[in-house]
Amino acid sequence: MDNQQIKDAGLKVTRPREKILGILERSGRRHLSAEDVYKELLTNGDDIGLATVYRVLTQFEGAGLVCRRHFETGQSVFELNSGDHHDHLVCVRCNRVVEFVDPMIEERQSAIAAQHGFHIEDHSLVIYGVCTDCAANA
Amino acid sequence: MDNQQIKDAGLKVTRPREKILGILERSGRRHLSAEDVYKELLTNGDDIGLATVYRVLTQFEGAGLVCRRHFETGQSVFELNSGDHHDHLVCVRCNRVVEFVDPMIEERQSAIAAQHGFHIEDHSLVIYGVCTDCAANA
DNA sequence: TAGCAAGATGCGAAAGCTTCTCAGTTGTCT
DNA sequence: AGACAACTGAGAAGCTTTCGCATCTTGCTA
Ligand SMILES: [Mn+2]
Ligand SMILES: [Mn+2]
Ligand SMILES: [Zn+2]
Ligand SMILES: [Zn+2]
């Protein structure tokens, strides 16, 4: 049950938290901004403040339930933490996002960090391009 | 002469543009925020508005003179466009930046984009970690 | 089950970065 | 030098995100 995840995070089970987690779970492969989540709540008739959406997303991030991404759109987007790290391919025309993992790249990154004496903590790799569909309707 | 670069960009040679370009040239391997550039101008006694700094940096970016980077600090940083692409290693403690290029990673990225039918346009790879100095004074 | 304290919420205000507006100024070309 | 488009500084405004606080809930205890 979802509620357990919230409890495990040391947070009280409240309606805003249940609804927001539900939206993220039902969003499939999408990457939603706080505003997206907020609008979805309004659509569903849930009267939850935008500040709460930001607060909850940040708390979920702290608890490892969601990941915050910084694509170059000016706002952060969130997705459920699948547990497995992955990087992103973003279409600059339609914003479609494709996820991928490349062991070779991961390995080279570790090597590079080590080579420069850095204790690696995280990394962000985003490839921007034009997807097949958008290239077709050029 | 610097002025030629400005002219080639189709821009008038003005004091703000000369000073800003000069600061970027003299900044070495640093990556400066608009605010950094603005403060440097003030220090040098140049009375140039912050809005102008932003405007000029954006114009220089459009002209391919500078590159804008989005590290996760909440503000953009700028550096002179060396002509050669490179990626970044950023210390999360002291913000030190190390630049690198890894042919293997570049190659894998192209392959991944192709594999997903994307016509690659750009990419951003930033590795976050703790540098040697910061690890020492832990 | 009623009561309580810690924790959460919604709202509006405010912060931080960046862009816009506009009246006045300056560079460029003749 | 003169004309005109381009540019500038200052402040207002825009956007995303966070804060402050009075009010309401949840989870626990008795
Ligand atoms: Mn993802
Ligand atoms: Mn660089
Ligand atoms: Zn597309
Ligand atoms: Zn450091």
- Quick one: CATH class of the largest domain in chain A? Mainly Alpha
Mean pLDDT of chain A: 95
What's the CATH topology name of the largest domain in chain A?
A: Arc Repressor Mutant, subunit A
Question: Main sheet of chain A: which strands, in order across?
Answer: 1-3-2
Q: Number of folding domains of chain A?
A: 2
What is the tally of beta strands of chain A?
Answer: 6
Give the quaternary arrangement of the chains: homodimer
Helix/sheet category of chain A: alpha+beta
Order of helices and strands of chain A: HHEHHEEEEHEH
Percentage of residues in strands of chain A: 15-25%
How helical, in percent, are the residues of chain A?
40-55%
What would CATH call the architecture of the largest domain in chain A? Orthogonal Bundle
Bound molecules: manganese (II) ion, zinc ion
The helix count of chain A comes to: 6
Q: Can you summarize the main beta sheet of chain A?
A: 3 strands, antiparallel
| Stretches with pLDDT under 50, minimum 5 residues of chain A | none
CATH homologous superfamily grouping of the largest domain in chain A: Winged helix-like DNA-binding domain superfamily/Winged helix DNA-binding domain
Keywords:
Dna Ligase, domain 1, globular, binds zinc ion, 6 strands, 22% strand, 138 residues, three-stranded antiparallel β-sheet, homodimer, three-stranded mixed β-sheet, DNA-binding, binds manganese (II) ion, Arc Repressor Mutant, subunit A, 6 helices, alpha+beta, 2 domains
